[in-house]
Every structure is written in C-alpha cells, then in structure tokens.
Amino acid sequence: MEDLLRYFQRELPGINDFLDKEADQLSGLVRDVAKHIIGSGGKRIRPMMTLLFARAFGYGKDDYHAIACALELLHSATLLHDDYLDDAELRRGKKAAHLVFGRTETILAGDALLALANEMGARYGNSRLSWLLARGIMETAVGEIEEIAFSRNPSLDRATYMEIIIGKTARLIECACRCGAALAGATPEQEDAAGRYGLNVGIAFQLVDDALDYASPTSETGKPEGGDLKEGKVTLPLILLMEDGDEAGSEALLDALKEKSLSEAQCEDVLAQVREGRYSDKTREEAARYVEKAKACLDGLDSVEEVAVLKQAADFVLTRTK
Amino acid sequence: MEDLLRYFQRELPGINDFLDKEADQLSGLVRDVAKHIIGSGGKRIRPMMTLLFARAFGYGKDDYHAIACALELLHSATLLHDDYLDDAELRRGKKAAHLVFGRTETILAGDALLALANEMGARYGNSRLSWLLARGIMETAVGEIEEIAFSRNPSLDRATYMEIIIGKTARLIECACRCGAALAGATPEQEDAAGRYGLNVGIAFQLVDDALDYASPTSETGKPEGGDLKEGKVTLPLILLMEDGDEAGSEALLDALKEKSLSEAQCEDVLAQVREGRYSDKTREEAARYVEKAKACLDGLDSVEEVAVLKQAADFVLTRTK
C-alpha cells in the first residue's frame, strides 16, 4: 500500500484546497452548506480515481482539479439530498447538514453543488466530460429511487440488489474513472476499461459497506450497528443468511421488514445469526471477487506509477474497517 | 401577435412530443413524476426562446429539440423542488407532484431531470451549451435560497427584490436565449445581446407574475389570491404600497410578515390598499419598461420571422392574465 499512501499524501492537499476555493466562491447559505459537507471528511476516492486514470492514460497537464473535484461535489450533493430524505442524523460522525441548516437550504445547496460540478466539468471545452457527468448523476438518482422501491417491497432477489448498489454507488465511481480517461483523450475502448475498473471497484466498495454495517461498532463507522436492518434495507449479508435459512422464516422476516414491525428482540436475533453464520465475512469474500475483476481491467495499461496505485486502491477497498 | 401564435402553433407539438419521448425513456418512478410535471401544462417559453434565437442567428438544422427541451426540463426540475419546499398544494391547477408521489420520489426525480437536461445539452459536442446550462441551474438555485433568506428577514429594499427575481426567474430565461445563440455559433457579443433580451423579458415576466398575485382570482391562476402576502413574501406591489405609506405602518407590517403573525383581517386590509392604490398596475408599468429594454436588444438582428416573433413574445408577457 506504500505507493497508494504516498500518492494520496501528495495529491490530497491540492484536491482539498481546490474544493475549499470553489466552495468559498459560492454565495451565502449555499457556501455554508457546501463547506459543512466538504469539511466533514470523506476519502476523496472519486477525484483520486479521475486523476489516476488521467495520468495512467498519459495526461501530463496540471489542470485536472476542476473535473476531479466535480466528482467529489456530485457525491457531496447526493449525500445532502440522501441524508435529508433518509432522515439521517449523522454523516461521518458529524450532525447531518439538514439538521444544521434546514431542509430548504440543504436541498437547494445540493442543487447548486450539482450545477457547480457540471460547470467545473464544462471548463475544458470537452463535451464528453459533460455527458459523462450528466449520466453519472442520472444513474445515481435512479439507483436511489430503485433502492426506495426495493425497501418498500423487499425481496431476496440478488439481481435487484446488485442493480441497486450499482446505481447508487458504482456508477459514480465508474463515471470518475471514465472522466479521467476522457480528459486524457483516451480511445472509447480505453475509457470502457477504465469504466469497468470503476464499476467493479464501486460494487466491491458498496459490498464492504454493507458488510461493515453488520460488523462494526458505531464508534468506528459513525453509524449505528445493524442500521440497514433497522431501516428495513435488505443487503447481501441478510440475503445470504436467508438463502441458507428456511423459507418460512425468511418470509416472516421480509414481511416484518416490509411492515416495519421488526421488534428490538427480533433485530438482535437476526444480528446474532449474521454474526454466527459469518455472513458479513462472506459478503467481503464476494467483494474480493469484484476487486480481482477490477484489477484485471488494468492489464493493458503501461506500468506507470498510477497503475500500481490503482491496483493498490482496489485492494484497499477490502481493508476498510469503517 | 399573429406571428407569435402561428409560430407557437407550428413548433409546440414538436417540443411536446420530444419532451414526452425523453420522459418515456426514464425509468419507473422518475418517469411518472416527470410525466406529471411535463403533462401539467406550462407555456414552454424557455424552449421557444432557445429555438427563436438559434433561428434568429441563422441556425438552419432541425436538431434543436434536445437543447430547447433541456431548458424546459431544468425549469420542471426546479418546480418539483420548489413546490415541495414551499409545501405548495397546486401547480398549474393540478395537485403538486410531492403530494401525488411523495417527497423522496419528487426530490430524486428533480435530480434526475436536472441530469437529463445536462445530458441533452451535452449531445451537441458544444461545451459552451453545457457551461451555460450549469450556470443557469446554479443561478436559479442561489436565487431561490436568497428568496428564502429575504422572506425570513423581509425589507423594502428594491435592489434585493430585483436580485431575487433575477436569480429565481430571469437567469434561466437568459440561459435559454444564450443557448439558442450558442447553438447557432453566434459571437460572444451576439450571445450577450440574446442574454440581455432574456434577462429583461425574465424580469418583466416575474414582475407580471408578482402583479397577478395581487390581482387575479384563483380560478384563473390556479393559485390563491394574495398568496405571496399570505406566505410572507415581499414583492413589488407591496414595496410600492409601503413606499407610499407611513414608515410606522410599514415597519409594523414587515414585523408581522417576519413573525408570520399577519391576521386574516390585516391581510384583507393590505389587499384592499394594494387594489385602491393600483399597485398591481404600477408593477405592470414597471414590467413594461423592461419589455422595452428587451426589444431594444434585438436592434442589430436581421429582420427574419423569428425576430418579429421575439418582439411579440416580449409584448405578450404584459398581456398575461394568469
């Protein structure tokens, strides 16, 4: 992981400075909300992916910050809208924006950040970048809507679950990778390879997230343990448990999730079963398969520093403990 | 107005068909919300402005629908978010989307429509269009946030009022006009002239809207009479009334608006004073001055059909009764 850490240490300050400067130029209330969400941390995975693929495809200029940071702002905008819509209280251990600034400010600041991201992407005179950003937002919004529909009518259907995590998480990471390739003027085939890397890393990232939800204590993640289950979300650890269990038990649990009638005791019981059956670890094993797929997408690339970092970044997804 | 009506009759079906087809390709719940807002009417002023300026600057191709309709979708997306944030019950006489589909679906469908609009604008390989759309959304979101701040701390400051109506309404109409010029490959000076026309028409449009709020019965506008006053919004008719009245009365009214303590009787009294003082008509007279400014921006243009229509469109703003 040495290359990865060194690369992030070198590049993160520039990305954070650029985000701060863009946020400073926003007006009044939008600026406050933007600075709150940008300042609440985050791993800056999306901008780093854009930079890494731009460099991997030979982009030599230093004007990559606007498009890289556009990806972070799109992500921030979706967090603002989601946290409000989910009635979330915390984001990265800090009070969620809508509880600090109010719903109207938060929704409209999210819109303004979406617009700022598009404007930043349009600065290069490269309309492929604008098209990619637009698609990324669209797919993320649709993925979130599908997640809501799924939570109202939960099932054990793995295909639907995969579609949702691809939409709500993996597509924007794919978009970040494609934007890097497009900035470098890569061929469509090269951009597709970058996109597949991002898609697979994104899936692995969300699988690990869903595994962590069942595994890690609140203090590390900043989220309550078993939060997904309590919110009625069906994710892979639960699907794996129910695939191994008896049908009657699964249907009763699905009904309880649908009707939001799961008792505290039932909830603790399910959490214990997931722990005993190691379904969180099994979900991580599934994630590991996507990480391998992601790394295979890098095969045709020159062995520059950035390609080594991209391989380590894919592996790093599996090491997350929060 | 003959040219205007003939032009709209000829072009509106194509614009509506295109909007319908784009909406049909959206997925599930997003499609339903999109079709609800698109199908609820609307004058399609923004897409028509884009088309008219594209033609006025000599654009001969027939592929203008994507960028023209992008402007309508941006407008629709802002209506979805605004109506939810305003707790509006009606939009164009129909039940507001958030009351039909729920808040989450409405907010996320708004995000998806913003993204679709950006994607449609990016189809031309002309990055100026993407930049203009991004700016248009940004300025509209900021204008709305400023309106909220103003409603919490209302004043009689005309400059602030003008800034708000420019942000929340005129900038997107300016954007529509600029997009038409940019599509036609107009010079920066030509695009600026188109933009100034749109800005002035947009200001006039909002002034007439604010005048109508004090003048027209619910059945025609689909909105309650004096709705702005009841919501605590300070608009030009009220500013004009208070500029003519005594300072103590104005301050008491501002305080009541700020504290949302305006009684039904006080409200009726203010409405009667606005009627007696013809402040709604005086607001329309102000609008007429902006219409003249808008028409002056067309002076350098060839006298093609579209320029005649643009002149009539500016005048038409003043004839609105709903």
From TrEMBL, chains A, B:
It comes from the Bacteria. The keyword Magnesium applies. Its cofactor is Mg(2+). The keyword NADP does not apply. Pfam families: polyprenyl_synt. CDD domains: Trans_IPPS_HT. Gene3D superfamilies: Farnesyl Diphosphate Synthase. Keywords: Magnesium, Metal-binding, Transferase. Belongs to the FPP/GGPP synthase family. This is Octaprenyl-diphosphate synthase. It comes from Pseudodesulfovibrio portus. The lineage of its organism: Bacteria, Pseudomonadati, Thermodesulfobacteriota, Desulfovibrionia, Desulfovibrionales.
